[in-house]
Structures are given as C-alpha cells and as structure tokens.
Design a protein that fits this description.
The protein has four helices and five strands; from the N terminus they run E-H-H-E-E-E-H-E-H. By secondary structure, it is of the alpha+beta class.
Length: 139
C-alpha cells in the first residue's frame, strides 16, 4: 500500500474502475466484466456501494441491495489480491453495516474462492436459497 486506505460510501467508481478491481480481486470469472454497460447498470441500481482506495486506485469494493430496515443482500465483496488479508473486507462490511438499521439482517452467497470466510466472521450458514436463471421460465 502507498498509504492509509480510504473508505468511501459517497462516491461510486466508474464501470471501468470497478471492472478493473473485480478482475484484480479474483471475482472476474463470476461477473460479466466484458459488458461495461451491464456492470454500470448494476452499480447504478445498487442501494449501497462501499469502496476502498489506496491513493487513486480502487483496491476493495462492496455492493449491496437493501431496504435498510429488515434485509440487506450483499451482492459482491472483493479485495485486490495484493491487499487481501489486510482487513479491507471487514472494514468494507463495517462501513456497510453502519448504514443499515439496527434490525437489518445481511445475507450473502459465498463465492467458491471465499469458502469459510463469512463463517469465520460471524455469519450463520443457511441452506434455504433458490435461484432462477435469466431466461428460465417460471413453471
């Protein structure tokens, strides 16, 4: 790191900055990083975007959708591979949590590369989740 990491909730990165950070975090294989317009739409529609900056470089990010009262779905949490294990991921989650109401639960789907991460940090595992893929009809 070049200096202290700055955490921000008041400014969103551009799609290009976000995609670059997603790729450096290892999440690039799970997200449509080859579609900047789609990534920008996801950023624009997110209720919460928390970022971590090392100088002018985005080194950590968190994106969530929430009603701020009952439930918050943490969509992505990523840290540049060169900065992982520096506490940035936890700091991003703390920044997000400070924006939520006192009764608001946080839910997240664990990425394959993050196996065990959330359990080590106080999350409880639940197995009652379902997914409907794009284009898949409701029957």
């Amino acid at each position: 790191m070049t200096g202290p990491v700055e955490y921000r909730t008041d400014a969103r990165p551009s799609a290009a900055e976000y995609i670059d950070a997603v790729r450096r975090s290892g999440l690039g294989e799970r997200l449509p990083v080859d579609d900047p317009a789609l990534m920008q739409a996801a950023l624009d529609a997110s209720d919460v975007v928390v970022t971590a900056w090392d100088g002018g470089r985005l080194v950590g990010f968190l994106r969530a959708v929430t009603d701020f009262a009952l439930i918050c779905y943490l969509q992505e949490l990523g840290v540049d591979a060169a900065h992982q294990r520096d506490g940035i991921g936890l700091a991003l989650q703390r920044e997000m949590r400070a924006l939520l109401g006192p009764h608001c639960k946080i839910r997240v789907s664990e990425a394959p590369g993050a196996a065990g991460y959330y359990g080590r940090h106080g999350y409880t595992c639940h197995d009652r989740s379902w997914e409907l893929l794009p284009g898949q009809p409701l029957v």
